[in-house]
Amino acid sequence: MAKIKHNNFIDTVDTVFTSAKDQGMLHLYTEGEYLNGRTIKINGYEMLHFGTTGYLGLEQDERLKEAAINAIRNYGTQFPLSKTYLSHPLYAELESKIEQMYDIPPIITKNSTLGHMAIIPTLIRDEDAVILDHQAHWSVQNACQVLKLRGIPVEMVRHNNLEMLEDKIRMFSGKSGKIWYMADGVYSMYGDYAPVQDLLKLAQKYPQFHLYFDDVHGMSWKGQNGTGFIFDAIETLEENVVVVSTLSKTFGASGATFFCSDRKLREKIKTFGGPLTFSAQLEPASVAAAIASCNIHLSAEIYELQAQLSKKIAHFSTLLSKSSLPLVSENDSPVFFIGMGTPATAYNFTKRLFAEGFYLNLGIYPAVPIKNTGIRITISAHNKIEDISELARAMDHHFQKVVEETGSSDEKIRQAFRMDIRRKLPAKKQQIALLHIEEQTTIMNIDKQEWNKYLGTHNILDWDGMNYLEQTFSGNEDSASKLDFFYYIIRYQNMQVVLMTFCTFGIWKDDMLSTESVSRHLEEIRKTEPMYMTSKVLSTGSLFTEGMHCYIDQGHPLAEQSFRMLLNKMEETYSSLGADMVVLRDFETGFKWDEMVRNQGYFRIDMPESCVIENKNWPTIENYGSLLSTRSRKHYNREILPYEKFYDVEIKDCLNQEEINRAYKLYCNVKDRNLAINTFTYNRQVFEKMNSSPNWEFIILTLKNAVEKNFIGIMFCYKNSGNVYVPELIGMDYIVGEGFNLYRQLLYQTIKRARELQIGRIDFGISASFEKKKLGASIITKVAYVQAKDNYAMEMMQTLQNETNTAR
């Protein structure tokens, strides 16, 4: 089975975070001998703090500080013993105070992350099922991975998508016990809410349906006794609802709390809940601070604090409503997210505000989709009204400047976040339009000689090859194989070609570059749902081609501007087509404008390696082994040459109908077996068009002494005007060919044929690079740049990858 190098999700995240760190946005340190909540010092500069999650400012309350100090004096810095054995003297008082707040006994955990790890595996039974909102906090999603080891199904739905959620509930209804939906009460990035009332209605409709809420961002600033957004929304905690809240963030101390109305379940979790048993307990100082905070929450003071914060939130909301700033979610939470669209715009904006003396948070991938990069601002009790007014003024002042400097627009940003377009600003007029872009939807409208000059010497990309692709895929009856074509030529002063490329629009499988185990899992589902986990993609090139899909005259002074023009045009096309994803394919590692592309809202992924043999002066075939390394030559002499005698080799320009049937069957054998690059299976039309095209030929291998004389191997090869020989597809009979090194022999016969035709380059494709390297292929590393409407598909692939890894 062909092996490829798969992209690593962690590498992608690391690239994004490293870029933000290099821009001075992440991994910063505060300075100074004390903190006051209102201001912080970074790199020697005093800044107003709009990035805290301590919304009521209780972490700076003197009563909490004194309580913590006294606890350290009385009980030490920690009580180093598992709470299962013995709790330190302050725990009982804290539990009592929290029970007074909620009218429900709590379970107290070290923090919410460990809380989820303790609660979820105990709460969820083997017969249950779990559905995750794809924006549920990482700590919840991570805890759910443990469930997969027990065979518990864990599915994911798009954020707050009730229709998709109900479909999943119906799917599990007949075969699962309880169906748990995991969601945040208040989401930490956009500050939007879970649709609690709609979820409660679903719970009434489906008795199996249960709700698990992480409400750490809804705590204290909302609800009776500051018990949070969820308790304020549900009023009564029924048996089908459980809530995790916090003693940190707004509460001002440390730790987390869990609430459920089922006493037996509560005791079971408390008796043995993973980290509850084996982790250290909260330090005396944290418990004492939490008790002091409980006293505030149990007094009328909490409502005064809530009202004061609410006034500041309303003031900021009013100022934003009068500004041009794209506020992503309008609500009354203390979390605000201003859409920037691209990382470049967000970096520029953040730097300007830092320089003005305002600290706020950058919201980047994977917390949000790469094209939904933005600025998260949090309002707290520490912020003064005049601070908030100054922040709003500075943001409004810099926004349009930033947008213009980074080549964005208010319209683009709002479009990226699916917001209403307020107004479309006129494009800036240029005195001289030095660059002009031509658009076509067919190669027939493009000069053959000019096309071949810039792109025609690569892969199947000569004019005739493009004509074949259009004839084959434009009108394809199979929706999975149908492609729309878009050609873009950017000229300098309407003459000189600075950039030339083509794009296709079609359906891709979301797991195309995932591991085989993930694809195998999804293919089982696709037996009944063929379009499950697929996306509409606008991509440079096509999945049928590889290599240099975009010619750029990199020495031209306007080369970068032309590439930006292409990105803008593709973005327009992407939006008009309603695509889910845009992909820039097959750029070699170290691409000149890598940073620029990523700053425009793309993340970089590693692509499978390309395999190429180049030899302008072929030796005699008898001397071919002399070109190989010592190790590869041994392989060549042992695994290649001795097996050639078993085969009859035939080169055909055209196949009869029986041969086409056989060829298609052998192709399907390989396609069904190889999930390393999981694309849709091509239909017969692709092969019928090959058969009628003069540029295609077929290398056919038949065993000499076989009882049946059917060929058992075939290579479908394209001859690109003497420039490139492209073994595009392969077909094999694995059973009959076993023991005869059929695959290796097909590779070798391809090399012999290219030499015979005196074609100096073979594009050997992107799989089985180890085998091809042994025959003299060079390996070319490549990257792609991806932009998606949301992170749902990518998070699903990562979840499935974790699931298949744990199942091994």
TrEMBL record:
Pfam families: Acetyltransf_6, Aminotran_1_2. Transmembrane segments: none annotated. One of its GO terms (molecular function) is pyridoxal phosphate binding. Residues 47-394 form the Aminotransferase class I/classII large domain. Its cofactor is pyridoxal 5'-phosphate. It comes from the Bacteria. Keywords: Aminotransferase, Transferase. Residues 631-772 form the BioF2-like acetyltransferase domain. This is Aminotransferase class I/II. It comes from Flavobacterium johnsoniae. The lineage of its organism: Bacteria, Pseudomonadati, Bacteroidota, Flavobacteriia, Flavobacteriales.
